[in-house]
Design goal:
Layout (H helix, E strand, L loop, with lengths): L5 H14 L3 H27 L1 H8 L5 H17 L1 H14 L2 H19 L5 H4 L2 H17 L2 H12 L5 H5 L1 H23 L2 H6 L4 H4 L1 H13 L5 H5 L2 H5 L2 H8 L1 H10 L1 H21 L4 H29 L1 H23 L4 H19 L2 H8 L5 H17 L2 H12 L4 H18 L13
């Protein structure tokens, strides 16, 4: 009588091992994923929220809009390296382990962010200042390309089968928490320091926090064991090239995933990162009011994100993602019209609405993407699709929003850009299969 292939028993093994994981281990997994992702995206947030000040420090000879375009251009260029980073970190994560990739990426991000605080301004070293800024931002982009995907895969592979959506929602929640701290610090600095103090040294303070926070995140991650799903793979499977396997066996999933990420890519950076600049530069609100409105919206976003994770476990990933796309197509432009009313309360409510709509996508996407790919290419598939879409459309979103307003002289241009992204995401998700009720693909 023939014995069944070894990989059949291995495929079932992770499901059994996950059920045996202790509550204490799960808490440490959640904490490590939250803190690490929080640190990475706090670093990114600070740059976005202080873009107006940074533009005058590094591009002082340009007019206001040109300086902003240059600052957001540096922001966007740093994203172009992210697909390359997706391949790099995906290879490490699928071949050597999720934990190793995540522990290394957080160190690189923290060091790069710390270095931004040390770069002299244009007035001191001339054109070398924006060149150094660009180089450091490229290193940041390379590092961040492995974080979101790795943390999501880590959580999904440790989560009980019926709670993968809730566990994965920790990733966008920690991302928003990083943005929230960045927003609070920006609001505090703009209200406490004078304009000259902000431009001279105040803007550098948040970047200095990166080093100690990064060390804490790395320490916690190194104390964890890799996921049951990854450990169940054979040594032969670890040794294969994950990118080659991904393109050979998971092309359809890769295309679907890249399209599905588009709403997240554009929506996240327009609504949660670019919005204070939009309110201050385009609608004439004070910097303090703009940051306060975004801070309130971010706090509500974090609360909504966990509800979305629970709902995606109950109703399915496709239903949640489709609902998010349809709502954005219908309500985004009217919401941007209301932002121009000049009423602070209306602006806060609109941002809460937009943030709540975004959570329907963001709270579902990490588990959806992780479940699309088998274990041996999960990190690579997630990282490449997520970072490709973010490189082309996410990092460029503040730049495109500013550029479209300049070209069309229409303040609603960012809203229409969001509508277009929603349509592409909707089409991609319609071609996907529902994954929430199925076991994770092991082979």
């Amino acid at each position: 009588m023939e014995h069944p292939p070894t990989h059949i028993s291995q495929a079932a093994d992770p499901e059994l091992k996950v059920e045996q994981v202790s509550k204490d281990t799960r808490r440490r997994v959640i904490t490590a994923s939250f803190i690490g992702n929080f640190v990475e995206w706090f670093d990114y947030a600070v740059y976005g929220y202080l873009a107006g000040i940074i533009s005058t420090v590094f591009f002082p000879e340009a007019d206001r809009q040109t300086a902003l375009l240059a600052t957001f251009g540096v922001f966007a260029i740093s994203f172009f390296v992210r697909p390359l980073g997706g391949f790099f970190w995906g290879h490490i994560g699928d071949r050597l382990g999720r934990r190793k990739a995540l522990s290394l990426s957080i160190v690189i991000m923290s060091v790069a962010t710390f270095c931004i605080a040390l770069i002299p301004g244009y007035g001191t070293i001339g054109i070398l200042a924006p060149v150094l800024l660009l180089l450091v931002r490229v290193v940041q982009g390379f590092s961040a390309s492995g974080e979101y995907a790795g943390a999501s895969a880590f959580l999904v592979e440790y989560a009980p089968a019926h709670r993968r959506g809730l566990y994965a929602a920790v990733v966008p929640a920690s991302t928003a928490a990083g943005l929230l701290l960045g927003s609070l610090l920006a609001a505090l600095l703009t209200s406490v320091l004078s304009e000259s103090q902000l431009h001279d040294w105040g803007w550098r303070l948040p970047f200095l926090l990166a080093a100690p926070m990064g060390l804490i995140g790395r320490y916690i991650r190194t104390k964890l064991e890799d996921t049951p799903a990854f450990r169940a793979l054979s040594q032969e499977e670890h040794g294969k090239a994950p990118a080659r396997d991904m393109f050979r066996n998971n092309r359809k999933q890769l295309i679907i995933a890249t399209g599905a990420v588009l709403l997240n890519a554009v929506g996240f950076y327009v609504i949660l990162s670019y919005m204070p600049t939009y309110l201050a530069e385009e609608l004439g609100f004070g910097a303090g009011e703009s940051f306060l409105a975004t801070t309130i919206a971010l706090a509500s976003y974090i609360g909504f994100i966990f509800l979305t994770g629970i709902a995606s476990d109950r109703f399915g990933r496709k239903r949640m993602l489709i609902t998010a796309s349809v709502l954005f197509m219908l309500l985004t432009v009217p919401a941007f019209m209301l932002l121009d009313t000049g009423n602070f309360l209306v602006i806060v409510l609109v941002q809460i609405l937009l943030g709540g709509m975004l959570t329907l996508n963001d709270g579902t996407l990490p588990s959806f993407l992780a479940e699309l790919f088998p274990t041996k290419t999960r990190y690579s598939g997630f990282a490449v699709s997520f970072n490709l879409s973010n490189a082309l459309f996410g990092g460029t979103a503040p730049f495109m929003a500013t550029l479209l307003i300049g070209l069309t002289h229409n303040k609603l241009a960012p809203g229409w850009y969001l509508v277009a992204a929603s349509l592409v995401s909707l089409i991609a998700v319609l071609f996907a299969v529902e994954t929430s009720k199925k076991p994770l693909q092991q082979h």
